[in-house]
Specification:
Strand content: 15-25%
Order of helices and strands: HHEHEEEHEHEE
Helix content: 25-40%
Radius of gyration: 21 Å
GO cellular component, one term: cytoplasm
Number of strands: 7
GO biological process, one term: methylation
Number of domains: 1
Mean pLDDT: 83
CATH class: Alpha Beta
GO molecular function: nucleic acid binding; protein-lysine N-methyltransferase activity
Subcellular location: Cytoplasm
Protein name: EFMT1 methyltransferase
CATH architecture: 3-Layer(aba) Sandwich
CATH superfamily: Vaccinia Virus protein VP39
Shape: globular
């Protein structure tokens, strides 16, 4: 028989595979039928290899609301490596502000022109139309707890912001955050959807609602 050399799935494996594909189709169907919100936190899953850890829904909402207030009417907000805050901001459709997301993960390119590919290793490799000091507030969450990563991300932040900075990073980075960005720790303690081993904090350089 000519088919003898073709590997065959066992009936059990084949049934399991078919069940997997069926569940996948059902999930996609539910997204469509429920008017799936592409901006909801978690709509793009975390990639731990990229050191991605999404905020809890409450934290993302709190930081997004803080950014709107800090930016003011008609304000511009930049989210640097902070996609879950960007997503929360986009859920507030109709509010009087604009926002963009600077992110290494190209999956976020689904957000169209508001997505800007960003690699912290090249902090000023930015599009020409991203003018210096053109954002009322910059929210940033550097992907790694290292001074090198913070220092390079700080270059981007200082290029983009008119002045206001909201930084989210580990508590162990307090000294370096003050050194590179002149920010101070807030009372507000951000939470993640999955618990992290490192204590996480927020830092600002302006009178915020996070104290």
């Amino acid at each position: 028989d000519d088919d003898d050399d073709i590997p065959q799935l066992s009936s059990h494996a084949l049934a399991a595979l078919q069940e997997f594909y069926l569940e996948q189709q059902q999930r996609e169907g539910m997204k469509t039928s429920q008017g799936f919100n592409q901006y909801s936190v978690g709509s793009i899953e975390e990639d731990w290899q990229l050191s991605q850890f999404w905020y809890s829904d409450e934290t993302a909402s709190c930081l997004a609301n803080e950014a709107v207030v800090a930016a003011g009417k008609g304000g511009r907000i930049a989210c640097v490596s902070a996609p879950s805050v960007y997503q929360k901001l986009k859920e507030q459709d109709g509010k009087d502000f604009s926002v963009c997301i600077l992110e290494y993960d190209r999956r976020f390119s689904v957000y169209g022109e508001e997505f800007i590919f960003y690699d912290y290793n090249h902090p000023l490799n930015l599009p020409e139309n991203l003018l210096p000091h053109s954002f009322d507030i910059v929210i940033a969450d550097p992907p790694y707890l290292s001074e090198e990563c913070l220092k390079k991300t700080a270059e981007t932040i200082k290029y983009l912001t008119k002045g206001k900075i909201l930084l989210c990073t580990g508590a162990i980075m307090e000294e370096q955050a003050a050194k590179h960005l002149g920010v101070k720790i807030c009372k507000f303690i951000p939470k993640h959807s999955r618990n992290l081993a490192n204590e996480f904090r927020c830092y600002v350089n302006y009178a915020s609602g996070l104290d």
